[in-house]
Write a structure and sequence with these properties.
233 residues; Rossmann fold; 2 domains; six-stranded parallel beta sheet; three-stranded antiparallel beta sheet; 11 helices; 18% strand
């Protein structure tokens, strides 16, 4: 198996992952909303998950957020577990993820760059007090801090900018990697799609069930669910 040989001969692997890594843990991609005729929400997900919508319609935002973005029952799948194992073995240097579910850390990965933040972290916009995910799950409407301020999830909403320091760190890891594995993402969303262009090596592997953006020049492409593929290694 070509992938197996590539991994065996690498000791500076970087993994870049998207929504497809979590779908095997039972977390649906929020874009695959409840079918055209069963749509519960009045606006498309991209609208609800925007900074403007959050500011203007907090209750409706949190209604969607609790139902669609928090998955307390989700557990790491074979992909998360294998990546954590590679890190422990010293082969994998970092996981760069667009996911906000914290499953990589739950599986035991330590060096995880969460480009879009995490549902597990929430802060009071007034006093900065930290809240875990339960504060959101077990509240109704717009959750409030003990100081009276609004609690905001530490996730990057549409219209908000990414953490540039983390982006630079991701670029650094990718440019130094001897192998880059991209999994569970179509790589059409920027700036994530642009990160891949910083890879200098000759072991660029894409593992994704669906189509991948046209500009990705992979050395190996595997059209299959990532957990299924990595569990065979």
């Amino acid at each position: 198996m070509q992938l197996k040989e590539m991994v065996a001969s690498s000791d500076n692997i970087v993994f870049f992952g998207g929504a497809g890594v979590s779908t095997e843990s039972g977390i649906p991609d929020f874009r695959s909303v409840d079918g055209l005729y069963h749509q519960k929400f009045r606006y498309p997900p991209e609208t609800i998950l925007s900074h403007t919508f959050y500011e203007r319609h907090k209750e409706e935002f949190f209604d969607f957020y609790r139902q669609k973005l928090i998955a307390p029952e989700a557990r790491p799948n074979a992909a998360h577990v294998k990546l954590a194992q590679w890190e422990q073995d010293g082969k994998l240097k970092a996981v760069i993820t667009q996911n906000i579910d914290g499953l990589h850390q739950m599986a035991g990965s330590h060096e995880v760059l969460e480009l879009h933040g995490s549902v597990l972290r929430n802060y009071c916009e007034r006093c900065g007090k930290f809240y875990g995910v339960d504060a959101i799950l077990h509240s109704t409407g717009a959750p409030k801090c003990s100081c009276g301020g609004d609690i905001k999830p530490d996730v990057v909403l549409y219209e908000e900018s990414l953490d540039m320091q983390m982006m630079e760190q991701a670029l650094e890891y990718i440019s130094r990697a001897d192998m880059l594995i991209i999994g569970g993402t179509s790589l059409v969303v920027y700036p994530a799609a642009g990160l891949v262009q910083y890879y200098r090596g000759h072991k660029l592997v894409v593992i994704n069930k669906g189509e991948v953006g046209a500009g990705v020049r992979a050395d190996l492409t595997i059209r299959a669910p990532i957990g299924e593929v990595l569990s065979q290694l």
